[in-house]
Amino acid sequence: MTELRSLYPSIEPFDHGMLAVGDGHELYWEACGNPAGKPVVFLHGGPGGGSTPDSRRFFDPEKYRIIVFDQRGCGRSTPHASAPEADLATNTTWHLVDDIERLREHLAIDSWQVFGGSWGSTLALAYAQKYAERVTELVLRGIFTVRKEEVQWLYQEGASFLFPDMWEKYLSPIAGDERDDLVEAYNRRLFDADPAVHVPAGVEWTVWENSIVKLHPDTEMIAEAREDVESAVAFARIENHFFKNAGWLEEGQLIAGIEQIRHIPGVIVQGRYDACTPIRTAWDLHRAWPEAAFEIVADAGHAGSEPGITDALIRATDRFAS
Ligand code: STX
């Protein structure tokens, strides 16, 4: 057996800043690796998950100019979606897509590789389909396209069959007679001005998702959602708002839109036992876009940090670097 590739060593940014993108939003961004290297932009998950120091580590820092940023309302971007008065009206898929363009222009990058997992794959597809000429390659993992069945699977019925124990906790903030539409019921609580209502809802929503992302549950990651309440509330509010609105996408739009990006070199990496964004979506994408390399990792769930997934992603970015 050949050894799996693991993340590149931890690095610090050589530059960072806040970019005003309109509507009062300022985005935190950073640049790492080689300032003269091949540009790549990392799109984090959720939406609302924010980037982490590990986001920088999927790319050879000697070869890449690595751009990482926090999407509207989360991470170090402001205003934060956890604020009691948070208004998410100007936080939609198409605002985020145009923010990526603003950031590219701000950094004077002509075109770049786009790398995203989970919601990051959704946003990467939406961005590439609108600004195809700006994308040199696509590296996508844990494919999610916000179709009705995908949202139902995660938040209404589906993953609940695999994780009935965690599911009970997810249901706990919601009264019995409101459980026919959990996204709606959560929406009412998450956007209630009273922290005694929105905090427990934000925590349980986020704990649920963190409980099912890896093949081997990550107890530290689950505990973190209960400790870092502000991040949990922002994550839950932003996800809920996006999914209640079907991502402002037509049903099946991102898979139908492959026509616009078929020519872009692409890699799709998908864990077989992904309970968050089940493999059927990646399969549908592969069927629509057979030109892209498609790799199923036999012993992994959803997370980019799972060994087989990290290995496949780094093989892809290494290949595109040279
Ligand atoms: N949300 C999928 C997603 O992007 C439907 C996602 N799920 N969990 C995450 O991201 C974190 C790893 C950021 C917790």
Report on the structure:
This protein is an alpha/beta fold. Helices cover 39% and strands 16% of the residues. The protein has 12 helices and 8 strands. Strands 1-2-4-3-5-6-7-8 form an 8-stranded mixed sheet, sandwiched between helices. Helix 5 (164-171) packs antiparallel against helix 7. The structure holds ligand STX. Ligand STX binds next to helix 7.
What is the element layout, followed by pairings?
Elements: E1 15-22, E2 25-33, E3 38-43, E4 64-69, H1 93-106, E5 112-117, H2 119-130, E6 135-141, H3 148-155, H4 159-162, H5 164-171, H6 182-190, H7 195-212, H8 219-227, H9 229-244, H10 253-256, E7 266-271, H11 279-288, E8 293-297, H12 307-321
Parallel strand pairs: 3-4, 3-5, 5-6, 6-7, 7-8
Antiparallel strand pairs: 1-2, 2-4
The chain binds ligand STX.
Ligand STX is lined by residues 45-46, 49, 118-119, 144, 154, 209-210, 213, 239, 276.
